[in-house]
Amino acid sequence: MTETDLLQLLEEVRSGGLAPRKAMERLKLLPFEDLDFAKVDHHRTLRQGFAEVVFGKGKTSAQVAEIVAALLGRKPGRQNILVTRADVKMYAAVKRAAGKKNGAVKFHALSGAITIERNQEISGKGTIVVVSAGTSDIPVAEEALLTARLMGNRVEHLYDVGVAGIHRLLKHSEGLMRARVIICVAGMEGALPSVVGGLVAVPVIAVPTSVGYGASFGGVAALLGMLNSCASNVTVVNIDNGFGAARVASCINRL
């Protein structure tokens, strides 16, 4: 339930169009719904501005579908639905559970995300730019891009502009300077966020990826490199956490 949904409900009660008992039935699922294996947080949109996001990895397809069905509720709403780290089986189960009335269910194979987009309202003040060092980093970058867009932001992307060919990045300096927040995704040694941070005056959220050869230690080398960045406007999220970077970028973009 969004803030708009709650206000509409209260208006219906005040006008006499909805009986108080009926309103109570709609509100009884707040603040959460107990599915036994999951406690679905229906109150999160009111508290944080966006509905609970479902992390698919480690869950069964049936569990993911039931959580999504609970988030969608018994009547169509305005909130977007996002499932991260999902697969094709989860997508099929979610599509069956959502039905036709709740909007188009899409599976984004590159990022492994499932989306149900029902609200395209822009609430962010500026543009979030998602930058990837290499093509191999794009799946994590796409997770960030999708998350930021579904959370009501204008989003642009700039892919494969890593330090191995820095001229590719410098060509887009003006576009980077127009961004309000930048998400910078890189594996290997994780050097790109420091370069980007030195070009702009806005927050740069660095996302280390697990891309690299043996001594990259599954992204730990990139993580440590980013944590030790000499660019003071760079902050870092966990390895491969495109979702987390986009969530923080969305918060910043609303301030």
Could you characterize what this model shows?
The chain is α/β, with parallel strands linked by helices and 255 residues long. It contains 11 helices and 11 strands. The radius of gyration is 20 Å and the shape is globular. It starts with a helix and ends with a helix. The model has no long low-confidence stretch (mean pLDDT 91).
Question: CA-to-CA gap between the ends?
Answer: 22 Å
Named CATH topology of the largest domain: Rossmann fold
Name the helicity range: 25-40%
**Globular, elongated, flat, extended or rod-shaped: what is the shape?**
globular
In round numbers, the mean pLDDT is 91
Major sheet summary line: 5 strands, parallel
What is the number of beta strands? 11
Parts with pLDDT < 50 across at least 5 consecutive residues:
none
Figure out the total of helices.
11
Give the number of domains: 2
What is the gist of this entry?
This protein has 11 helices and 11 strands.
